[in-house]
């Protein structure tokens, strides 16, 4: 999902978007059964907060957590190009909704989720930056 080699140039479609792991305040644009789309001021593209990223507690109904027009803090946990479309993934549970403070400042949870996603896409085992983090944070496995 994310590119962890910071020396490589970013794909052309991702420039001008919020940086990975940045925290910004956005507005809930729409609520779906699977999550909420968030509009960030100054950007045309909306991103998805998946239902699993809304809260540290289990969420059954997205509409019970957020309303359209509500201001929320989000952390960018995924940016990718898929079929010439930009996909932005956000997390609300990684940010204190009262203060905007980062609750995962080392991005351990975000990177771990990315690694699980990447491994589910392919059986190819390649060395990856997340392998190092998982060694240092075995409680996430």
UniProtKB/TrEMBL annotation:
Coiled-coil regions listed in the entry: none
Gene Ontology molecular function terms on file: RNA binding; zinc ion binding
Keyword set includes Thylakoid: no
Organism the protein comes from: Oncorhynchus mykiss (Rainbow trout)
Keyword Repeat part of the UniProt annotation: no
Encoding gene (name): zcchc17
Pfam families the UniProt entry points to: S1
Name by which UniProt lists this protein: Zinc finger CCHC domain-containing protein 17
Location of this chain's protein in the cell: Nucleus, Nucleolus
InterPro entries in the cross-refs: NA-bd_OB-fold (IPR012340), S1_domain (IPR003029), ZCCHC17_S1 (IPR047913)
Protein origin, superkingdom: Eukaryota
Gene Ontology cellular component terms for the protein in this record: nucleolus; ribonucleoprotein complex
């Amino acid at each position: 999902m994310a590119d962890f080699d910071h020396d490589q140039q970013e794909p052309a479609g991702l420039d001008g978007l919020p940086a990975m792991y940045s925290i910004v305040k956005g507005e809930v644009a729409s609520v779906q059964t699977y999550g909420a789309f968030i509009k960030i001021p100054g950007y045309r593209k909306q991103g998805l907060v998946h239902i699993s990223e809304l809260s540290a507690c289990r969420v059954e109904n997205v509409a019970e957590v957020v309303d359209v027009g509500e201001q929320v803090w989000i952390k960018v946990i995924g940016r990718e190009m898929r079929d010439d479309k930009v996909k932005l993934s956000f997390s609300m549970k990684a940010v204190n909704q009262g203060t905007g403070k980062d609750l995962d400042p080392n991005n351990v949870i975000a990177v771990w989720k990315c690694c699980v996603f990447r491994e589910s896409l392919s059986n190819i085992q390649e060395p990856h930056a997340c392998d190092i983090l998982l060694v240092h944070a075995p409680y996430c496995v």
